[in-house]
Specification:
The complex is a heterodimer of chains A (309) and B (323). Chain A has 13 helices and no strands. Chain A has 309 residues and is an all-alpha fold. Chain A has a domain of 189 residues: Orthogonal Bundle (MetI-like fold). In chain A, helix 2 packs across helix 4 and helix 4 runs parallel beside helix 7. The radius of gyration of chain A is 24 Å and the shape is globular. The termini of chain A are far apart. The C terminus of chain A is likely disordered. In chain B, helix 5 crosses helix 9. With 323 residues, chain B is mainly alpha-helical. Chain B has two domains: 72 residues, no CATH class; 230 residues, MetI-like (MetI-like fold, Orthogonal Bundle), CATH 1.10.3720.10. Chain B has 15 helices and no strands. Chain B starts with a helix and ends in a 6-residue tail after the last helix. The model of chain B has no long low-confidence stretch (mean pLDDT 83). Classes of the chains: A mainly alpha (309), B mainly alpha (323). Chains A and B meet through helix 6, helix 10 and helix 12 of A and helix 1, helix 6, helix 7, helix 13 and helix 14 of B.
């Protein structure tokens, strides 16, 4: 009997969630920014998936090690190489596809890590208050003003060549303060609500209150900030690779730009200079637009504004 | 006000101290012998002995730390391995160049962003607004080094309007007859492309912040009052709405300073602009640790101090805030 009630309640809750999700999705897709951003991202996603195909067709299409034996320097687009080849005869199109994979990998994992860290720190600071709050926020202020790209560069000076995972980790470690500030502000206001008191009097521990009662309420906001962190992670990795301190084992768009710049083909090979830059800029733009559209889903005030004008 | 500035400066000192300490610890943790990383192998034994004593590398670790702090506070960063000169001398020459490019770029983009954002909000929903918002979104998300390369390719290589790299042309600066204005014009001529790059990347975010802040301000009652009083639209926009709307822009300038200095380093590297950012990149690629460390410290100091300047400016612009 009781089981049945629970089941019905659960089904109702699921239905409610689904309804809410569909409504948000509709608001999201009604927004032109959201639509454009989403379609661009789907395109980049397809590129990342397709990056596995060219090396399977012919090993000479491998983005890193594949070299066309008939080509000795950079040549322009042809049927054989849709976007031409780089200075040693590697196919630019397959490098571009591989770059999409690296961008997603770097962007999403660094953003995820920094948002997890930022959310944890923000919730702890906001909930605990007093000394913990002051200490954590001072730390956040300190890290926030440091230029991340140059910090990672300095770490490269200390520890030598950084692998792609080290770079991702470093970006995550230095990009959390922005998130934690927002989450802290949200936590401070949540803390005043009656349901937190109710949880406390019924004997919930601090950890349980933070993770069970506060976290579900700040997660949407954290998720929104993740899209902005993705762009900054991609740009930092690309900048680092462009300066020549990327992981030499990966082909990222920043790396491709570094090759065209350093090998002196910049002025002769627009087919090589243009695509990686366009890709980095477009993927940044699409995540940015996605974030803006999500902003409107989460903040109804903004929604009214765009509809009015 | 003075108390507030002093407090902020004290905070800057604390943060710098933390950065120095972390760098010291990391340097000892990093693989490789500190002596070989700090001392040029081409020096004579006497010279290197002198340098080791000056840097305290033969002392116990706690004493090394104290000597390191003392050296950093007096600007003794050791010898650059690549240049074979004292690091302080190398980077002090570069500092004004960085500050020139960086401040001009930030000020220019903030001013343009504010005034265009004002117009965009005023013409909300019209073609002007749409055009400006889209332009801001697109330029803001362009990849900076790529934009720089593109500008070089189009305006310096194809059209040959501007020099490809550098900050000065030798024939002007070696010419004894060249006056101050000729030299200044020469620097300005070299600065056009790097400045355009930084401007295009930055004005968009200021424009967007100003636009949304202005839209909020326009909903306030005092705007309605101003309109009821019969003030001209121009006065309402420029005297009543804009001064209240630009405060969030000042905050966003402060928050984006770290981002701007990243961009500054990339721009300097692409255009061979002789600044500290480029020096840091160069030092890291040459394994010149003393130079890298000092450039990093100097850049951090510049960012921290400009943050203080922005905060003070904020307090000055907003009469409600009195420290």
């Amino acid at each position: 009997m009781e089981n049945k009630t629970v089941q019905i309640l659960k089904a109702k809750r699921r239905a409610l969630w689904r309804q809410r999700f569909m409504e948000n999705w509709r608001v999201f897709m009604r927004n032109p920014l959201g639509r454009i951003g989403m379609s661009l991202l789907v395109m980049f996603g397809l590129m990342a998936v397709c990056s596995y195909i060219p090396p399977m067709i012919d090993p000479m299409y491998h983005p890193m090690t594949g070299v066309d034996p008939k080509v000795v320097s950079s040549v322009g687009p042809s049927w054989q190489h849709w976007l031409g080849t780089d200075f040693m005869g590697r196919d630019i199109f397959s490098q571009l596809l591989a770059g999409a994979r690296v961008a997603f990998l770097v962007g999403v994992s660094a953003a995820f890590m920094s948002v997890v860290l930022g959310t944890a720190v923000g919730m702890t600071a906001g909930y605990m208050g007093r000394f913990t709050d002051t200490a954590l926020m001072r730390l956040a202020d300190m890290i926030m003003v440091l230029p991340t790209l140059l910090v990672v560069l300095m770490l490269a000076a200390l520890f030598g060549q950084l692998s792609i995972w080290m770079i991702v980790l470093m970006i995550a470690l230095f990009r959390w303060p922005g998130v934690s500030r927002i989450i802290r502000a949200q936590t401070l206001s949540l803390k005043q609500r009656p349901f937190i008191d109710a949880a406390r009097v019924s004997g919930a521990s601090h950890l349980r209150i933070i993770f069970r009662h506060i976290m579900p309420n700040v997660l949407p906001l954290a998720f929104l900030y993740m899209t902005f962190r993705v762009t900054s992670a991609i740009v930092i990795e690309a900048g680092l690779a462009f300066l020549g301190f990327g992981d030499p084992g990966t082909v990222s768009w920043g790396m491709m730009l570094q090759w065209v710049w350093k090998t002196g083909y910049m002025f002769q090979a627009p087919y090589w200079l243009l695509p990686p830059g366009i890709c980095i800029s477009l993927i940044t733009l699409s995540f940015y637009m996605l974030g803006r559209a999500m902003d409107e889903v989460l903040d109804p005030r903004l929604r009214d504004e765009t509809q009015a004008g | 006000m003075r108390k507030y500035v002093l407090k902020r400066l004290a905070q800057v000192m604390v943060i710098l101290f933390c950065i120095l300490t972390i760098l010291f610890v990391l340097f000892r943790l990093a693989p490789g012998d500190p002596v070989t990383r700090m001392v040029d192998p081409e020096m004579t034994p006497e010279e290197s002995q002198h340098l080791i004593e000056q840097l305290g590398l033969d002392q116990p670790i706690w004493k090394q730390y104290l000597i390191y702090l003392k050296n950093c506070s007096t600007g003794e960063f050791g010898y650059s391995i690549h240049y074979g000169e004292p690091v302080a001398k190398v980077i002090w020459e570069k500092l004004p160049n960085t500050i020139l490019l960086f401040t001009t770029a930030v000020l220019l983009s903030a001013m343009v962003g504010i005034s265009w954002g004002k117009i965009a909000a005023w013409r909300k929903g019209k073609a002007t607004d749409l055009g400006m918002t889209i332009a801001a979104l697109v330029t803001h998300t362009l990849f900076l080094p790529w934009l720089a390369l593109l500008l070089v390719w189009i305006f310096a290589y194809q059209l040959d309007w501007f020099p490809i790299t550098g900050m000065v042309s030798d024939e002007v600066w070696l010419d004894p007859d060249a006056g101050f204005f000729t030299k200044a014009a020469d620097v300005l001529y070299h600065m056009v492309l790097p400045l355009t790059t930084l401007f295009l990347i930055h004005f968009g975010s200021y424009l967007l912040v100003m636009r949304s802040s202005m839209l909020d301000t326009l909903k306030e009652d005092y705007i309605l009052l101003a309109r009821a009083k019969g003030l001209t639209e121009r006065d309402i926009r420029n005297k009543h709405a804009a001064p209240n709307a630009w405060l969030p822009v000042v905050t966003s300038v402060g928050l984006s300073l770290a981002f701007s200095i990243n961009g500054g380093a990339l721009t300097e590297t692409v255009f061979s602009w002789p600044g500290i950012g480029r020096e840091l990149v160069f030092a890291v690629s040459q394994n010149d640790y003393p130079l890298a460390q000092a450039s990093f410290m100097l850049i951090s100091t510049v960012v921290l101090l400009s943050n203080v300047v922005v905060d003070v400016l904020y307090a000055y612009l907003d009469p409600r805030i009195r420290y």
